[in-house]
Amino acid sequence: MLYPGNDGAVYYLEEKTPKAGYQLPDEDVIFSLSALGEPKLISGGSNLQFIEAEDQYILTIDMLNVKDAVPLEIRKTVSGNMGNKQKEFTFTFTTADGDTYHYEWKKNDVLQSTKLQNGDTFKLSHDDKVVIMVPAGTDVTISEEAGKYETWVKLNDGEAEKKKAVTISDISDETTVSFENKLNTLIPTGIFTNHLPLILLLIGLVCGIFLTGSRLSRRRRESK
User: Fold this and answer.
1) Going along the chain, which residue ranges are E strands?
2) Which of 56, 76, 89, 182 is the most exposed place for a label (fewest CB within 10 A)?
3) 51 vs 27: CA distance, rounded Å
4) 173-212 CB burial, b ≥16 within 10 A, e <16
5) Per-residue model confidence as pLDDT tens digits over 147-183
6) Has this prediction a pTM greater than 0.70?
7) pLDDT at 216 (0 to 100)
8) What angle do CA 80, 81, 85 make, to 5 degrees?
9) Cα dihedral across residues 76, 113, 95, 65: positive or negative
10) pLDDT, tens digit (0-9, with 9 covering 90-100), for 194-213
11) Burial level of 16, CB count in 10 A (0-12/13-18/19+)?
12) What count of Cα atoms within 13 Å lies in the side-chain half-sphere of residue 18?
């Protein structure tokens, strides 16, 4: 039973042991009751309300327990004779959980100060990698803005597929997604074959002029 007294009171609610497969909430629940018994949520939890029963009021608070997290790694490579390995490519992180959760992540093994949310973006260049800690059972989509680059995506050790997004449904184990961007420019070899007769004619003319000059020079030397 809660008795706020004449001046109201502030209460702390701490969860000690989470359900198996879940983590403790990021913060404890703090709420207050006025002298008239009106509840107010200060931090932690959500949806604080009083439910009137027959001979009592029931206070309910939703606690946010996140499922145990598994690492989702995104790797990036750039290839091709025109591939720019300094270019940063934009990736979008999307989950089916909406804006409820915040996800810890590292870029090139450095923990980032701001957690990721549904719809957030990050940038990767050649040989960069990102590791996002995702609750088990989550549906995750990673998509890339590749522009004119050809994009191939490989999930774990599977076959690479030509596409710009991948969805992992009900993620349960450590997962690696590899994005490869290719940009090649073909040398226009047709210019040589199309003009081959003209090139050969020019070579013949040059050789003829050279031989004629050599003969004239020899005759002059012989006539002296």
Assistant:
1) 9-13, 29-33, 39-43, 46-52, 57-62, 69-79, 89-95, 105-107, 110-111, 121-124, 129-135, 140-145, 150-155, 161-162, 165-168, 175-182
2) 56
3) 24
4) eebebbbbbbbeeeeeeeeeeeeeeeeeeeeeeeeeeeee
5) 999 999 999 999 999 999 999 998 988 999 999 999 9
6) no
7) 53
8) 65
9) positive
10) 566 666 666 766 566 655 55
11) exposed
12) 14
Place of tokens 């199309």: 194
CB atoms within 10 A of CB 113: 5
pLDDT given at position 41 = 81
Report the chain's C-alpha Rg in angstroms. Answer: 35
Question: What residues contact 141, with CB distance under 8 A and at least 6 apart?
Answer: 92, 93, 94, 95, 165, 166, 167, 168
The pLDDT of residue 146 is above 90:
yes
CA distances for 109 relative to 47, 73, 105, 129, 175, angstroms: 37, 11, 9, 8, 16
* Alpha carbons 84 and 77: distance in angstroms, whole number: 10
